[in-house]
Amino acid sequence: MSSFPAQPLSPLDGRYRTAVAGLTEYLSEAGLNRARVEVEVEWLITLTDASLFGSEPLSALDQERLRALYLDFGQEEIDWLAEKEAVTRHDVKAIEYLVRDRLETLDLGHLAELVHFACTSEDINSAAYALTVKRAALDVWLPALQSVISTLEQIAHEHKDAAMLSRTHGQPATPSTMGKEIGVFAWRLKRVAGQVEASDFLAKFSGATGTWSAHVAADPSVDWPALTAGFITKLGLGFNPFTTQIESHDWQVELYDRVRHVGGILHNLATDIWTYISMGYFAQIPVAGATGSSTMPHKINPIRFENAEANLEISSGLFATLSQTLVTSRMQRDLTDSTTQRNIGVAFGHSLLALDNLRRGLGEISLSRDVLLADLDVNWEVLAEAIQTVVRAEIAAGRSKITDPYALLKDLTRGRRVGAPELAEFVRGLDIGDDARQRLLALTPATYTGLAANVVDELL
């Protein structure tokens, strides 16, 4: 009914396509089918290498020609599969027919019956999904995350000594430095990124119900568990030997929960940076030609962080659904995982888009140190913690007879502003040693940052 030409329904395939293009190599339908062809071809080579059922090992040239079926996989194969699947109504069977067809053109038609030999579709799918998810996660998504972490580390080092007023429960609290606060996010993200990098990517290859039944029927003399495990390992994957028809997807649940964990940390980063911008701690660098508001010319909106926040929420919801759905399969197999897994790319896509926005956004802000210092200068009461702690130390050392230093400072500072002169007068009247008094008199909110800068240097 529409006069529009064909349009993408998802913004990931439209407005944001450039930002997530790297994922389409792996997590698109074409990427999945290319990996399926790869698994079929490599299984055929494995069978011939073992000289099974009268076959002989293929020459290096023939192996190279076979591997070209997936290495050179392109539009011709995409179109061929679309036409064949319209007839077969089965995506993996179409893959089998494609490989058989290409064997004929390579004068290797005598090997046709070894294509998809003793395989269930989920043998092919489990390996193909493991390959595509591994490559997408480690080669595309993880480098984008590491780029954000690297940017955060640079900001942390640059501003490690930039004193700022902390706010616990939204209230003025012991000062920190902006570098240390940004560094906390880098530290958190690096830890979970390491877990993602160490993830398992598992596949099964044990037939219709995970028993190697057809394999043994064809040749009971072969150690099929060892042969299939070696095959999967050679693909660069981990082998799951104990399954139903499907690989149980537990490794996917673990991975998606970790990626969702990263998303939660990034969401916290986005909201904190947004808040710091609203407080004037960070100024946004104007981009030539950009418009912040259709009616208010002065505005520069923190759209990168808002966009990241929204995409992280979408990604988190999708990953949560994947984790919840994939962990269960009725009896030996049902098809709910098939439809669910087709959305893996969408979940990673929204996460990758958020990472792109965060990286860009972090490059478009500059720290307003004068605002930080001005904020500190009107909150001298945050030194109450330092004063009462020093007094407690003096009491413990026998240099003070004050009985309740916390209550003393609470009466002075709770719920009201206390200026520098008033605090100085208070300190001068304290029953403490002279060295302690001089340390407190020299202290300001801007210098009360403890080891914040050292933590950045030592831990990042």
UniProtKB/TrEMBL annotation:
Native organism taxonomy:
Bacteria, Bacillati, Actinomycetota, Actinomycetes, Micrococcales
The GO molecular function terms of this record are: N6-(1,2-dicarboxyethyl)AMP AMP-lyase (fumarate-forming) activity
- Residues in domain Fumarate lyase N-terminal? 16-308
What keywords tag this UniProt record? Answer: Lyase, Purine biosynthesis
Please state what the protein is called.
Answer: Adenylosuccinate lyase
The record describes the protein's role as:
Catalyzes two reactions in de novo purine nucleotide biosynthesis. Catalyzes the breakdown of 5-aminoimidazole- (N-succinylocarboxamide) ribotide (SAICAR or 2-[5-amino-1-(5-phospho-beta-D-ribosyl)imidazole-4-carboxamido]succinate) to 5-aminoimidazole-4-carboxamide ribotide (AICAR or 5-amino-1-(5-phospho-beta-D-ribosyl)imidazole-4-carboxamide) and fumarate, and of adenylosuccinate (ADS or N(6)-(1,2-dicarboxyethyl)-AMP) to adenosine monophosphate (AMP) and fumarate.
The protein's matches in Pfam families, at most eight in alphabetical order, are given as:
ASL_C (PF08328), Lyase_1 (PF00206)
Q: Which species?
A: Microbacterium halimionae
Where in this chain does the record put each Adenylosuccinate lyase PurB C-terminal domain?
329-449
Provide the E.C. number(s) assigned to this enzyme.
4.3.2.2
Which InterPro entries does the entry link to? Fumarase/histidase_N, Fumarate_lyase_CS, Fumarate_lyase_fam, Fumarate_lyase_N, L-Aspartase-like, PurB_bact, PurB_C
The EC category is lyase
Could you state one GO biological process linked to this protein? IMP biosynthetic process
Under which pathway is this protein filed? Purine metabolism; IMP biosynthesis via de novo pathway; 5-amino-1-(5-phospho-D-ribosyl)imidazole-4-carboxamide from 5-amino-1-(5-phospho-D-ribosyl)imidazole-4-carboxylate: step 2/2; Purine metabolism; AMP biosynthesis via de novo pathway; AMP from IMP: step 2/2
